[in-house]
Amino acid sequence: MTKRRYTADDGQINDGDADGNGRPGVNEETRLAVLNLANRLGYRGTTNKKAAAPQGVINFLIYRKSGSIITSTQFFTRLVVAVEKAARAHHYTLTITYCDGQDQLASCIAEAAAAQSSGIVMLGTEMEHDDLPLVKDAPLPIVVLDNELTASPLDMVSIHNLDGVWQAVHYLHDQGLKDIGYLKSSVPITNFEMRYLGYTYAMNQFHQKLDATKVYELSPSIEAAQQDMNAVLERGCALPEAFIADNDLIALGAMRALQQRGLRIPEDISIIGFDNIPLAEYAQPPLSSIEVPCENLGKSAVETLRWRIRNPKATPRNIATGTELIVRESVPQKTASETAHE
Length: 342
What we know:
By secondary structure, the protein is an alpha/beta fold. The protein is built from eleven helices and 14 strands. An eight-stranded mixed β-sheet has the order 2-1-4-3-5-6-7-13, sandwiched between helices. Helix 7 crosses helix 8. The radius of gyration is 21 Å and the shape is elongated. The N terminus is likely disordered.
């Protein structure tokens, strides 16, 4: 368990450990990326304005179970910065705790309470229903970010996953691509489950046949997804006209494997990812992806926590943040004249 604090004085991130050495399990690349982003975005104190009265401390609890989803990816770096920005806007200091597994969860929450934190924003991307009993009776308010567990007694701030994949299927259908496959993560989380549910729902709504032989499980990292996709191609599996992937890392890994086999994107096969990480724009060709507005997620999480602090007995809230399809060169784009003649 490692804690880091964003200080209001200089906007820097300092190690919370007395020895300053950091602890195992904290990705150095992630730490440096957060530092660089925070500094680039101008998180500095001001000398010409009177500082607002501090409101207290919010603990950002980053909960990892498998650890294979919450990695050093650009999406989670952006999410950390978004939460810090929202906390700072309301004059809170943010502490960050990395919690690895259920064995550490109770002690992490107890430590935040002992430090007199106002509440916890819990990054619950890898959280499952069996974690809820450990947090539902916490001695301070908790808002779960990036998960939409059903029947949760906690406030949830999540991505509108179904709507995002609906947009992708709808767009491909409009481009005349009806044979649409899916690239699932081999590591299941709620977000991915909801995205696949959105795919099956949208395909049914557009009266397209679901072909289970064109749904493949790939590991949720670029290199591992590339290896897994190569194994699929070696089996000689029939490929669809287009793929939608659980996230950008899976999509980018699959693209590499397909291109190594001489397949052209999008001429031979199209692909759409999810998260719209910055790397997607610089792929060859640039990857179409579902944009997740991290700043909105961070803002909603902090504002929901502030509401919960004021309303401790209120019914739990479940807030879903909308998404947007960003079309790039990994999918075909009909011209205006082509669309007019249909």
